[in-house]
Every structure is written in C-alpha cells, then in structure tokens.
Amino acid sequence: MDRATIRERLRALYPAFETLDDARLERLLEESLVLDMKAGAVLFDEESPCQAFPLLVEGTIRVSKAGSSGRELQLYRVVPGEACILTTRCLLGNV
After folding, report:
1. pLDDT of the chain along its 95 residues, tens only?
2. Which region, left, alpha or beta, applies to residue 54 given φ > 0 means left and ψ of -120 to 50 means alpha?
3. Is the model's pTM score more than 0.85?
C-alpha cells in the first residue's frame, strides 16, 4: 500500500489524524514501522514487551490467549479504526 493511501486511511479511520497536514503525517509515518502482515502471522504475544501501538488500516487482528491446556481462547477482534484494549493497557500502565 502506498503512503498516500495509508495517510488517507489513517485520516478516515482515526480522528486524531484528520487535522494533521500531509507533511506532519508523513514525518510520523517515516518514524513508524509500517507492516504488511500475512494472515495468521503473530504480531506479538503476552511474553513480548509493549513497544508499539498498532493502527490498523485494513484487515483484522485477532486477540487470543492460550490456556495451560494449549487450547486457544479468542478474546476479541480489532478492525480498522479500533484500538487494542490490551495493548493500550500495557503501554499506558507500563505492564
């Protein structure tokens, strides 16, 4: 996905970006890690330190937890424009 499309989607999905001009938003993108992940890829797990806040512009993130039995429990899904509650808690709470 090209930068212009990413800027357009960020503005449409996340109100905080609506008022930023192209130059300022481009500077933010230059300092960001823009990922194009494949379906099923693991972004991070509960053992990973909180280092970033995902801003989803397309697709879905499935948030799950593995039980001691190995079974996986889906907690919720994050779609474009939404925030991941656990990541927010981790970053703000320094957990």
Report:
1. 888 899 999 999 999 999 999 899 999 999 998 889 999 898 888 888 888 888 999 999 999 988 888 898 999 999 999 999 888 888 888 65
2. beta
3. no
Centroid of chain to Cα 54: 2
Beta-sheet strands, E only, within 1-95: 61-66, 72-78
Q: Are 17 and 57 spatial neighbours (Cβ–Cβ below 8 Å)?
A: no
50 vs 72: CA distance, rounded Å: 21
Closest CA to 10 of 29, 27, 38, 35: 29
Q: Which residue type occupies 31?
A: E
**Which amino acid type is present at position 26?**
E
